[in-house]
Request: fold
Amino acid sequence: MWSRTELKSKAKESFKRNYWKAVLVAFFLLIVSGGIGANYTFNSNHSYFTGSNNGGFSNDFAETKQSLDANSFKELMNNTMQKIDEPSRVAVIVVAIVVIMAIILIVVAIGIAIDTFLINPLKVGIKRFFVQDLDHKAFVGELAYGFDSRYKNIVVTMFFKNLFIFLWTLLFIIPGIVKAYEYRMIDYILTDNSDLDRHAAFALSKEMMSGQKWNAFVLDLSFIGWGILGLITFGIVNIFYVAPYQYHTNAALYSFLKTQTNNGTIQQVQ
Reply:
């Protein structure tokens, strides 16, 4: 049996024991996952103020110049397209579309490659840190676990996990969410069994999460208040408290479910 209170109590105890290392590792996971909680975009607004007497004139001039430049560019493009006959114009458009699509595909392929061969093994190593940190002070070196121990198997298993969740999400959002919870323990299973093939890892995660998906969902919901506070503080609270606290809690959930897996059954939460 497990309860949110017990998991969170265990998480807080572990977090306090190894605070700064946990913060560092959690921050690293936030970076690779893109989930710090607040994105900052600083726009460099050019000031055309040249003096107290002509500042307004300078701003108006800059805006007028920008408008003229945009209109000139549009006019140039229109004149150029008009000089091209219809078949050639279609060919230009087709080539432009093909080039744009090719660039998009290349960018997507690079993103998938980085996620598959770098970020996923890092995530496994980071989650191993939090599992190890539950009972004793873990070392930051655990982050390299995904690269040192059966790297190829981890890459393949994590790739198919993300692929299947993505494909289920394409059907409808809800099936994708359900599968995400069903496969939730795969990362953690690999932290203990890096040589476990993907079929066995999927089956074990499904077994561990049988009857647990709703309770895990409610566990996640219990952090919403902290998430809002993280947004209000521009991610500062997330970095120094919420993220490592939540990652420890998730590791505690895995630790409990692992001990409760027995002959294909898991005790239900009450």
